[in-house]
């Protein structure tokens, strides 16, 4: 019998992207798609591949007969409900942070470590954070070829990583500064935003995001690191299977709506060249190489948003560091960074 796929969090922002991805898939192996959301959204009608479906309320019974349940919900909801789905016989593929670092839960990027989907003692598979995911197709491919030793990255993260409220805030701040000659005196952007009735204390960001960059994403952890920076370090180690990988990350929010970018400085065990790296990227179907600086061709988030692949460019051999590459990647944080990777894990499970 064709497998049954459930989408928990169907009415949320990532759930919507997931439905777009399902609509666009050429092969669709599922006998039934079940949309699940909070009781508040139950009864809503949504269309998947031309078929109108009624959203069911989250309950243990909603998982009966489900083979794979994809979770796009907050950590605390996943923490409670993914084990319930697994106990009812489904494999839970979870896009929250609840299980990522649990040693009994594989953290999977299909093009890097797909074999790990079989090693799931709790019946749960985790999907990485979008910042890690933005660069993982590239890092996995390079690691296989050259042996990764050290990773130093700076992220340029889009507002949508913070959810719909963060997107709304960015647009509101852009409206507030529109047509004003600000950005010429310390504090004038902040004043313009606050004068428009948008106090920074109400913002998901700790500083104005319009016409600015904010070197803080996530929450503050020990020794000045942010949760986002620690995720990049810990998740990269787990996905690549290098427990002692040296990683240093600085995560920065930029006034982009969707698509995270990462500047990568990667040190390898073996000699690397730009040509060899280009070959590795070109051989990886989920990577698009856009690297012709003489023609001013390189990836930018504005050109990548809505796309499935990871875009890579500005590949350079580091001048002062042996066996080291510097490059720039862009990945849509709602697609490969969230919904697409989760769906690809579900596909890998049925294949
Ligand atoms: C962010 N990576 O961009 C987070 C979302 N999971 O805020």
Automatic annotation (TrEMBL):
Similarity comment: Belongs to the aspartate-semialdehyde dehydrogenase family.
Residues binding phosphate, per UniProt: 100
Protein name: Aspartate-semialdehyde dehydrogenase
One matching Pfam family: Semialdhyde_dh
Binding site for NADP(+): 11-14, 40-41, 160-161, 333
Active site: 130, 260
HAMAP family: ASADH
GO molecular function, one term: aspartate-semialdehyde dehydrogenase activity
CDD domains in the record: ASADH_C_bac_euk_like, VcASADH2_like_N
Function: Catalyzes the NADPH-dependent formation of L-aspartate-semialdehyde (L-ASA) by the reductive dephosphorylation of L-aspartyl-4-phosphate.
Stored Gene3D superfamilies: Dihydrodipicolinate Reductase, domain 2, NAD(P)-binding Rossmann-like Domain
EC number assigned by the record: 1.2.1.11
Gene that this sequence comes from: asd
Binding site for substrate: 157, 253
Reaction catalyzed: L-aspartate 4-semialdehyde + phosphate + NADP(+) = 4-phospho-L-aspartate + NADPH + H(+)
Subunit record text: Homodimer.
Keyword Membrane among UniProt keywords: no
Transmembrane regions: none
Semialdehyde dehydrogenase NAD-binding domain boundaries: 4-120
Any GO BP: diaminopimelate biosynthetic process
Statement: the UniProt record of this protein carries the keyword NADP: yes
Pathway: Amino-acid biosynthesis; L-lysine biosynthesis via DAP pathway; (S)-tetrahydrodipicolinate from L-aspartate: step 2/4; Amino-acid biosynthesis; L-threonine biosynthesis; L-threonine from L-aspartate: step 2/5; Amino-acid biosynthesis; L-methionine biosynthesis via de novo pathway; L-homoserine from L-aspartate: step 2/3
């Amino acid at each position: 019998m064709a497998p049954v796929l459930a989408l928990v969090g169907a009415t949320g922002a990532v759930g919507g992207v997931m439905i777009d991805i399902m609509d666009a898939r050429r092969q669709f192996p599922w006998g039934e798609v079940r949309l699940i959301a909070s009781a508040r959204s139950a009864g809503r009608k949504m269309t998947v591949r031309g078929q109108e479906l009624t959203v069911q309320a989250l309950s243990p019974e909603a998982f009966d007969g489900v083979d794979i349940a994809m979770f796009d919900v907050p950590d605390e909801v996943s923490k409670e409900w993914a084990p319930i789905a697994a106990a009812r016989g489904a494999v839970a593929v979870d896009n929250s942070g609840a299980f990522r670092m649990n040693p009994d839960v594989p953290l999977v990027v299909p093009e890097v470590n797909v074999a790990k989907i079989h090693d799931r003692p709790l019946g749960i598979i985790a999907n990485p954070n979008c910042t890690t995911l933005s660069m993982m197709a590239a890092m996995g491919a390079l690691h296989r070829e050259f042996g990764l030793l050290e990773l130093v990255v700076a992220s340029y993260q889009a507002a949508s990583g913070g959810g719909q409220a963060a997107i709304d805030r960015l647009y509101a701040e852009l409206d507030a500064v529109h047509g004003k000659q600000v950005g010429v005196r310390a504090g004038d952007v902040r004043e313009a935003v606050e004068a428009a009735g948008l106090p920074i204390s109400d913002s998901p960001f700790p500083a104005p995001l319009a016409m600015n960059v904010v070197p803080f994403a996530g929450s503050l952890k020990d020794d000045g690191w942010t949760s986002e920076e620690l995720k990049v370090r810990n998740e990269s180690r787990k996905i690549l299977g290098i427990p002692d990988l040296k990683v240093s990350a600085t995560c920065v929010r930029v006034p982009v709506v969707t698509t995270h970018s990462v500047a990568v400085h990667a040190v390898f065990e073996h000699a690397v060249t730009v040509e060899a790296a280009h070959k590795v990227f070109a051989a990886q179907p989920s990577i698009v190489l856009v690297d012709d600086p003489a023609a001013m061709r390189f990836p930018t988030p504005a050109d990548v948003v809505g796309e499935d692949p990871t875009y890579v460019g500005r590949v350079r051999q580091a001048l002062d560091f042996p066996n080291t590459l510097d490059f720039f990647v862009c990945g849509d944080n709602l697609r490969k960074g969230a919904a697409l990777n989760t769906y690809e894990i579900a596909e890998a499970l049925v294949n």
